[in-house]
Amino acid sequence: QIQGMPYGNCLLLSDGPVNNNTGIPFFYVTPKDNTVADLLKNPVASLTLPEADGNFCRKNVIDPEDSRCARLTLMGQMVIVPPEEVEFAKQAVFSRHPVVRKWPRSYEWFFMKMNIEHIWLQSWYGEVSAIAVEE
């Protein structure tokens, strides 16, 4: 009934093993998830990350979802991780989310990543700045 309509979902992600962050979001996903089935048909996606660890919000005891805390939105194409990058994706995700090693194999898990095309930084009540992907 909602085919073709965008909706959000929570997926485990990692941008690299601890002390080796790449800025590229990697995901461990299953085709049995409607979000993933949709992304395999139309790979355009956005990912918004709140300023959970920033000094301002923590210092002032402000909820990370409060408009005064920054949000980073990455937009791009979700793609299946190519074979030559699978080992890195595995290290990236499993090092930060070790519980996934125990997930049922029958779900046909695989790795995806976002090829980032646009970055927006929203800080304070709605100010949005475009950031060059190279940065």
Radius of gyration: 16 Å
Broad shape: globular
H-E string: EEHEHEHEE
Q: Total domains, how many?
A: 1
Q: What is the architecture at the second tier of CATH?
A: Roll
CATH topology: Pnp Oxidase, Chain A
Q: Strand count, sense and closure of the main sheet?
A: 6 strands, antiparallel
Name the helicity range: 10-25%
- Total helices: the number is 3
CATH superfamily: Electron Transport, Fmn-binding Protein, Chain A
The CATH class is identified as Mainly Beta
Percent of sequence in beta strands: 25-35%
Query: If you average the pLDDT, what whole number results?
Result: 87
Number of strands: 6
Helix-strand category: alpha+beta
Please give a structural write-up.
The chain has one domain: Pnp Oxidase, Chain A, CATH 2.30.110. With 135 residues, it is of the alpha+beta class. The protein is built from three helices and six strands, in the order ββαβαβαββ. Strands 1, 2, 3, 4, 5 and 6 form a six-stranded antiparallel beta sheet that branches. Belongs to the CREG family.
Q: What is the gist of this entry?
A:
Residues 2-135 form the CREG-like beta-barrel domain. By secondary structure, this protein is an alpha+beta fold. The protein has helices spanning 34-41, 55-59, 86-96; strands spanning 13-14, 26-29, 44-50, 71-80, 110-123, 127-131.
Key traits:
6 strands, alpha+beta, 18% helix, Pnp Oxidase, Chain A, 135 residues, 3 helices, single chain
List the helices and strands and how they pair.
Layout: E1 13-14, E2 26-29, H1 34-41, E3 44-50, H2 55-59, E4 71-80, H3 86-96, E5 110-123, E6 127-131
Antiparallel strand pairs: 1-2, 2-5, 3-4, 4-5, 5-6
InterPro entries: CREG_beta-barrel (IPR055343), Split_barrel_FMN-bd (IPR012349)
Protein name: CREG2 protein
Domain CREG-like beta-barrel: 2-135
